[in-house]
Specification:
This protein has 18 helices and 2 strands. The protein has helices at about 15-30, 40-50, 60-70, 75-100, 105-110, 110-120, 130, 145-170, 175-190, 195-210, 220-245, 265-270, 275-295, 295-300, 300-320, 335-355, 360-365, 365-395, and strands at about 260, 320-325.
């Protein structure tokens, strides 16, 4: 386990660093194509913030862009790509830390390659033959066009690692609670998409534990309240008011108007309603295979429980909430499902490592063979789909959303 709840202790080898740098470079190459113009838009926001004109409700990315711009004199746009590259690199290192101790010895050598693959997992486009979509209607764990989501990944992964570690190890010292609360706040100010779903997920698990008479300790309850509930309610409450609050003289571009619960309305704009189930299955194929073949190990894992409930909450956000007063087609509530699925894929791979049996007996049992072969086959299909998605982003003339 981590010696310190927030700082990784793994000794990274040179080839780990090289693969991490390669992952960051590949991401930046695709991001620079800016297929939805998000990078250009957020560079403009950073410039407005630098000139104290206005700032978005989530401004950590823009502050980092200003910092890089000040230190290097790069343009705001290129400073943003530096921030993205560093974000991907640190996400890779945190992934290595998270998976390294659970990976069997035979998998530790190629673990860096598996971590790289996690950055390119993409929904299996089961209906591509019908609607030619690689992205619309699916929940995609890896996108290249939105800089604030890319920045959120290392923060969300680190927060998830820290929170689950503190709960499992019953480590409730005041300094740990303060660190968790600070990380909660920073992740919200980077982008609220992760905490909007993690907090309800944590509360649902806490309530379920009450029903089953397996209550969280008083210390764990205090950790959830002080480290998650209070900073999340305060900061997301402020962001919500600024984005969806009453119109008035102080209205800005961030005040978008009306939040509406409207199941599948945005989904049906790009996809037929009957394609809903195939697109959900195509998005979740690998985690579902882990549930099917490795349920016994998964049920014992607090990480997996939290990741699954978080994914369910995020799916509701993705498919049921829309912004009717602002950018309806932006799908701003879909970002939560992307972060949630990225975390679920990471946890699912960890459960897979903890479950597989590499002994001779394990390979002679048919079900054991299937429990290895089918999840890995689906993982590979997700990666192949990700390669097509990446190439679509890398060559905008052939971009296929």
């Amino acid at each position: 386990m981590l010696n310190h709840p927030i700082l990784p202790r793994t000794r990274f080898r040179p080839h780990h660093i090289l693969v991490g740098v390669l992952t960051a470079l590949l991401f930046v190459l695709a991001a620079k194509q800016d297929v939805f113009r998000d990078h250009f838009q957020h560079a403009n926001f950073a410039e407005l913030l630098a000139h104290k004109v206005e700032s978005p409700p989530h401004f950590v990315y823009h502050l980092l862009v200003i910092l890089v711009n000040t230190v290097t004199s790069f343009s705001f746009l290129n400073s943003g790509f530096v921030v993205i590259g560093l974000s991907v690199f640190f996400t890779f290192l945190f992934l290595m830390e998270y998976l390294q101790l659970s990976a069997p010895t035979t998998y530790r050598a190629p673990l860096a390659v598996l971590c790289l693959a996690l950055f390119f997992l993409h929904p299996i486009p089961l209906l591509y033959w019908r609607d030619k979509h690689l992205y619309y209607g699916y929940m995609a764990p890896n996108i290249f066009h939105n800089p604030t989501v890319i920045l959120l990944k290392p923060l969300a992964l680190l927060h998830f690692m820290m929170f689950t570690h503190l709960i499992k190890e019953s480590s409730y010292k005041l300094k740990n609670v303060i660190l968790l609360g600070l990380l909660t706040g920073v992740s919200i100010l980077a982008k609220p998409s992760y905490m909007m779903t993690l907090l309800p997920a944590a509360v649902l698990i806490w309530l379920f534990s009450l029903i089953r008479n397996k209550r969280f300790s008083n210390e764990a309850t205090k950790l959830i309240i002080l480290g998650l509930v209070l900073p999340t309610v305060a900061l997301i409450g402020w962001q919500f008011f600024r984005t969806f609050g009453p119109q008035g003289a102080d209205v800005t571009r961030w005040n978008k108007g009306k939040l509406v619960f409207s199941p599948l309305e945005l989904f049906s704009y790009y996809s037929s309603t009957i394609s809903f189930i195939p697109k959900v299955l195509g998005s979740l194929a690998f985690p579902l295979s882990i549930v099917f073949f490795h349920l016994k190990t998964a049920k014992r894992s607090f990480d997996f429980q939290l990741a699954v409930v978080n994914m369910l909450v995020a799916a509701v956000f993705n498919y049921c909430l829309v912004d009717k007063g602002g950018c309806f087609l932006c799908g701003d509530f879909g970002w939560s499902s992307q972060i949630a699925l990225f975390l679920l894929n990471c946890v699912s791979l960890k459960i897979f490592f903890q479950s597989i049996d590499f002994s001779t007996d394990g390979f002679t049992d048919t079900r054991a063979k299937l429990a290895i072969a089918i999840p890995m086959a689906l993982f590979t299909l997700h990666v192949i789909s990700g390669v097509f998605w990446y190439s679509s982003n890398l060559f905008p003339a052939h971009f296929t959303p």
